[in-house]
Amino acid sequence: MYESIPGRAFTGEREHVRTGDESMLYFSYGSNMLSERLRTRAPSCKPIGVAHLAGHVLRFHKRSGDGSGKCNALRSCDTSDLVVGVLYEIRKAERNTLDNAEFLGRGYDRVLSIVELGDSACSVEAEVYFALDHVIDDTLLPYSWYKELVVAGAREHGLPSEYIANIVSHPTTKDSDPRREQLHLKLLGNGDDS
């Protein structure tokens, strides 16, 4: 299935997907799952497929500069816990733009991690952003527009329906800045173009 993607090599009992020298693999589990959003940060992004990160749970508790909660893949003590997301290939030259969008070193840390592609035994080394401890606040809620972006990305790539339902059921709060909300909803085609 993945052999058709150019620039990949497969080796070993558990397959490992590798990119060329100019590309990297990036595992997105939050709003960057939505291709349109990620393209604003990494225009070269190409979705590889649905993947999951074992031993982690999805939380909306990363404190954002706008005062709301953003997604985090929180390490759990249960290896059966999964954060499901989308594996993308992006150009390494765009990593700095993505780092800036994720507030690397101030909001998230970028860690090379092993994720599993789909239901296969294909192990993939990919860059994953994890919230830093000092920006985690379990009292936060995401803005409704942010959760809409996460859900739209999950639906775009066909994440499991039960997983999407869990995201949909997460409570939200209204953004007090209507301009910011409109700006982000334009990614879904819902924003006012006036």
Entry summary:
21% of the residues lie in helices and 32% in strands.
Please provide a written account of the structure.
The structure is a single chain. The protein is of the alpha+beta class. It has one domain (2-188): Hypothetical upf0131 protein ytfp (Roll). It is built from five helices and eight strands, in the order ββαββββαββααα. The strands form two sheets. It has a six-stranded mixed sheet, with no helix packed on it. Strands 4-5 form a two-stranded antiparallel ribbon. Helix 3 packs antiparallel against helix 4 (161-168). The protein is globular and about 45 Å long.
- Tally of extended strands? 8
Spatial extent as radius of gyration? 16 Å
N-end to C-end Cα span: 44 Å
Under the CATH scheme, the architecture is: Roll
The CATH homologous superfamily: Gamma-glutamyl cyclotransferase-like
Structural class: alpha+beta
Task: Report the CATH C-level class.
Answer: Alpha Beta
Query: What does the largest sheet look like?
Result: 6 strands, mixed
Q: Looking at the chains present, what oligomeric state does this protein adopt? A: single chain
